Amino acid sequence: MIQDLSITREEIDAVDKQIVELIEKRMDLALEVAKYKMSTGKPIYDRERELQKLEKLGGLASTEFNSKMIQELFLQIMTGSRRYQYSVIGDQDHVIDDMFASVDELEISPQTKVVYAGVPGAFAEAAMVAYFGDDIDGSNVKEFYEVAQMVSEGKADYGVLPIENSSAGFVSGIYDLLERYQLSIVGEQMVQVNQCLLGIPGTDLSKVQTVFSHPQGLLQAKEYLEDKAWKQISMSNTALSAKKVHDDGDMTQVAIASERASQLYGLSVLNPQLNMSNNNTTRFVIVSNKKEYVKKANKVSISFALSHECGSLYNILAHFIFNNVNMTSIESIPLTGKQWEYCFFVDFEGNLSDNEVKNALKGIMAETDEFRILGCFVSEK
Questions:
Q1: Which of 137, 154, 255, 268 has a Cα-to-Cα distance from 247 of 20 to 30 A?
Q2: Is the separation of the CB atoms in 178 and 171 below 8 Å?
């Protein structure tokens, strides 16, 4: 005889109530563990003990299915306990506080050296002027890595690098440069991007054979270029593409760049609007070799490495959820020489002085490899 469903549900409710009471009792015990670890300086995360305990708990189940379910359940219970312990202990050893210094304002004066990649007329130049103004010692180089190199070696105080476009996504290689040269993000600048088609005055579009631009520029004009049989050639910079068309003087060549570039290099605007989106914006980051942040900063950027294991990323990102920290973006790249391992780059709202942020970072730092705070800065959102 099948038992009435309402009775079964009542029994489930009673069991659930017991589970909640037991979990709360377990969290009280986790608090005692946190107090002990706080007094002895022992780390909260003990991966080997957790793995042994999960195996033991799974072995108590009567079926293989129940074993896997119990291990999954207790994995979440144990990770929740750790997050609770991190919040109790906090940053008492000041590990997070000691990573970056808080300053009232960035040091900017007429002697401040700022470098960007490209030539005059590049969107990076526009970002530099928008962020620093005209009263600084600005200069340009050809490649992004040269910007990072100059800042790393102290030949420039700040660098300007594009990191993300609202239409084309993250700019390839920039996060890798931040890692390789150990640079910090200290600022952010949004630039409205309007890509134009430029050519030698008198250019006949029906005779065009080649178009030059930065890969992002070509991608942003993808819809316009789809029905064109033009050869697409990538350049290191959009303004450099305009300069090449000007220098070559070849009317079968065109460039995708800004209207400002057309004015600087004496080119005609053959099409004033190539963007797939009317709201095309590129986010530039201001980088420094100093680990500092302004007190009014409202955004944090971090990186960490994870092996390719089921649930590993979820368990890390849950630190944001449990601390009520809002994540705004995530990007991943494969780790060089390490198969199926990835480096993740995460941006989230907050300030390094916030307790919630420090609690989240302490947990992530303990449970990942190659953890690094990339910067804390004012976001334009």
A1: 137
A2: no
Average pLDDT over residues 264-281: 87
User: Pick the residue with more confidence: 209 or 78?
Assistant: 209
Catalytic-role residue among 123, 282, 320, 322:
282
Exposure b/e, 210-231, CB count within 10 A at least 16 = b: ebbbbebbbebbeebbeeeeee
> DSSP assignment of 252-292, as one string?
TEEEEE-HHHHHHTT-EEEES---SSSS-EEEEEEEESS-E
Q: Output the pLDDT for position 298.
A: 97
Mean pLDDT confidence for 22-51: 86
Q: Which of 100, 123, 284, 304 is catalytic?
A: 284
- Could you report the per-residue pLDDT of 83-137, keeping only the tens digit for each? 888 877 766 667 888 899 999 999 999 999 999 998 888 889 999 999 999 999 9
Active site residue 281: no
The residue extents of the domains of the chain are 1-89, 101-193+281-294, 197-271
One CATH from 3.40.190.10, 3.60.15.10, 3.40.47.10, 3.40.50.150 for 197-271: 3.40.190.10
Q: Residue 270: name the closest of 200, 210, 338 by CA.
A: 200
Which pTM was predicted?
0.78
pLDDT at 3 over 90: no
Asked about 40 being catalytic, the answer comes back as: no
Query: Given pLDDT bands bounded at 50, 70 and 90, which one contains residue 306?
Result: confident
d(CA 150, CA 185) in angstroms, rounded, equals: 15
Instruction: Classify domain 1-89 at the CATH topology level.
Output: Chorismate Mutase Domain, subunit A (1.20.59)
